[in-house]
Each structure stands twice: as structure tokens, then as C-alpha cells.
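Running this now, will post back.
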Amino acid sequence: MLRTASILALGVLACGDNLVDKAAVCQLGTATSAATIEDRRVIGLAAPYSPDLGLAARDAELEGSIASRRQAAWQIVLRTLRPVPLGDPRLASSFGGTQPVIPAWHTWYARDDFERVFKKLYRDLGPDGRAMRAPLDADVGFQWNAIALDSDPAWPEQRYLDYLAAIDSPEKANGVGGASRVGYSPGAMGHIIESYAKQYACRTSTDPDPFVPDPMRTPRVVTQSEAVDVEPCDFRLLGPFQAGNGNVRVTSRGDGDIDLYVRRNTRPTTDLFDCRSSGDASDEECNVAGNGPIYVGVFGADASTAQIDVEYLAEDVRDPTCLEGELPRDGVLVKADWRRQLPGELLPIYDSSGPRMTSRLAGDAQWNSDGVADPQPADIYTVVLPSGARFRMPALHIMSKELDHWVWITLWYSPQPDSDFGADRPAAIAALPGPWRNYKMCVTTSYVERDTDPRGGQPGSLGDSLAAVHGGVGAPTWCSNPYIEQGKGNAATNCIGCHQHGGTTLAPEKILADEPQRGTTRTRNNFFTDYLWVIKGGGGEDLSSVIQAEVDFWDANDP
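Update: finished.
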């Protein structure tokens, strides 16, 4: 998930490392800068991610069916890659009157955005709010961040217009998103920002135990409360609240007049809901069945301030000590591998056919190059930064919280994209703007493979390759990226195995060497950063280090 030609230490989907960068935690390769304040002004707000809220109920099916797993993964890829117009409409004049688009993930927030938003929100709390570690509203910060440039004296209007006019090619439009290692969907970034107090406490404490005696905790009643301010005709969405099997009771109290709209599994509207209250005050109640995500809509009939309490039965809660609960279902992280494109420089390519994967895994399980290629922008995702530096992106990880233990997907460029791991690519992805038809994909959703068919029901080259990496029922699942998981043993890894140690100080070489089956086997049940390496122990991407520095500064300087 940076600056030119630098290597950052952070986690990726498998226990990735390479021979040069052994000190880094699950490396991603070379990368450059994130979206700057001027780029964020061009992009606007990050595009939301719309999760498949029914996917969690299919967790067991996905664990036992490679075919179902791959179908679901391609749909997540499609939602992540969907084209989104850049935010400033004046760009269209440089593109023949058509607004340029970039993939949804490339509009998402990066570390630069995190620093700007967190520092702004935390400073705005004032001394009393900072002393109390008062809550932050990430949405307020995102709105400010989208136009922060407008109040920056270093950016008079003409300078910005000149900057805008220089964006005159698809590769330069892509470059507006920067070449950051890690991008965070609004749901993911918002949750991380609003969990700042827990992250601060986590940084100053020892790591929690990796295993607790009772992983299936006794179901218990939980009440979550949220304060809302709504204007007349405002409709505010809350949730989802992950409710166990039992009644969910939503109540409100306050002034003015609000109505509650509650719906299971998906967001309510004023026309679609499972329960609606319709009193003439703000003291309201709704009850619905649980056993799924519960969404609450708050409609303001008048200007109102109210507290919303959601009471439900919580089951099997994995409480991440460093966060205010697990990430929401719309929480997604993408982690990109960028390669500087210099004149005459070629890109290594990798054969992932069944026979080659069989020989690869029978040896030292290393991604050795099978040749080179010189892909052009029509073939591989390419960005040109304002400096003129050109980067190609041969690999992209996608981590989606649509399952409790995440969905772990990785894409990689191939000059033979329609064979083996690209053979089942949906036509909708091939039809997207850009070169996405040239990327292959693997996915894992759990530690253990449960599909009894090594070929996953797939014919031809895809079935051959799946059989080559299938370790048998009960063995660890497989998903490895040739551009990222470099080094001995790393071609045989999966994604979830490395990330189970997110937030610890375990080095990648220790995970690969000392953990069972090259770190692919589950060895813990306490995921105190919800599998994220970017919180505590994330090296250069460690967002909680920004939090600690800011909090410590104000603690020392506030009256």
C-alpha cells in the first residue's frame, strides 16, 4: 500500500519479501508519491465502495468452492476497477469535451490524505476535546480535504488552472491518483481515523496475546450509540451493525422530530425498509430480526439532535484491540506495485501455467522470471506524474472486508492474459476502460482449502494451474503474486497467513522461516489490528505513528 525510488515497509497479501529488502514487512516493490493536495482537489471525494452484503452468509460456500470463490472475487475486482470521472469538470476541455475517468481504487485515500485529515480534525477538537480524546467525524474531514487546496496560499487560482491544463493525456489523468502503495476506501480510512484513540493506546502497550482461550465467545447483548445532527429533510445512514441471531432494537432520544428507517442486509431508503417509526418527536423505536448487517436511516422532519442506540446480540466477536471494532463491510485496501519505466527498461514476466507452477512449487517455490516484455499503456496500467516520471503497475492487491476474515485478491500483468488464471475473466472486466483485460487473478478467503476438486471444476489451462497449486483438502489455500511475493518459498504462500500477524513486530523472513508451512497456517485467533499491517508495525506506512506524533505534540503543548 511514497517517494520516488523508495522502498516502504508494510504488509501485503502474502508474506512477501525480496532478496534486497529483507528488513521490510511484506514488501511491495518500488513506489513513488501519493496523491498531493492539488491532486485531491482534481479528484474530489474518494469514490465509495458498494460491498456485496450477502457475501458473508456464503463464507462456508466460498471456502469449499474454488469456482464460487473466483466468481465472487472477479465481481469485487469489477467494483474496485469501475471507472470514476475525475472531480473537476474543467478537465473535459483537454479531453475533447469528455470528462476523463480513473479506476475507483485510484480515487481512494492514501497516507497523505490521512495525515491532512487526521491533523485537521484533531487540531479542531481544541484543548478540551484533545484532552478527552473526543470522537472525530471522518466524513467532515473528507469534505474539507477535497477542497483544502482552495485555502492554501501557495496555490493561487492561476497556478491551479495551469496545473489542471497540463493534465492532457489518459496517462496523466491516471497520474492524478499518484503512485501510492496503499489506497483506502472511504469506509476503511474513515474507520481508521475514528479509531485514533485506540490506536494511540495500542502503540504504547505490548502486543496482546496471539491466542485467547475462548475464540467462540458467549453471545452477549451489545448496545452501540451514535449522536446525530440532522437538518430538515436530511437522511443520515448509520451502520452496518453486525447483529447475531435475535431481535435488534433501535431507539432514539433527543429534541426535534426524527423518524427511524431500519433494514437488514442493505441500506434503507424512505421507500424500502424493514421497520419505520413515524412519531412526531425524536423519541422513537424500531425492532427487526438480526442475524445479519443492520442499517439505520435517520430522517430529519425538523432540525434535530438525537442519540441513536442500537441493541443487538453479538456473536463470535473478534475484538481488534487497536481499532473501534472490525472494519465495516465497505472497508477495502488496495496495495499497488509500481515500476519506474525508464527508456529501454523491460519488465519481467512469469509463466503461471499448470506445468510451470508444478515445477516451480516442486523446487524452491520461488517466482523466477520466465522472460521479459515491454508493455505499453494499452497493455498495462500506466501513470505519468507531474514530474514527468512514468510508472507501470504490474500488480495490485485487493483486500475486502466483505467477509469477517477478509477476501484476499491479487492481480498481475501477463502478456498471455487469457490463459490459466485469466481464463475465466468476465467480459465486463475486459470491457472496462484501460488495460484490465491483461491481468490475471487469484483469491483466497480462508486459511484452509476445502474444495475436494483440485481443478475447482474448471476446464483447460485454468483447471491445470489450479490443480498445480492445490495442496489437498485441509491444506493451506494458495494465492501468490509473481511481482510481489519474491524470494525463496514465497511462490507457495497465501495471503491471509501473513496478515494474521498484522500489527506485530514479526519480520517477514521470520514468518516465512519459522511459522508452519511458510506462514500460511493459522496460528492465532486474536487479530488486534483486524489483519492490517498498516496499523502498528507497518513500517513506513504505519498510520498510527502519525497519530502518536500528533497526540504527543498536543499533549506536550496544550495548556
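The first strand starts at residue 83 and ends at 85. More later if anyone needs it.
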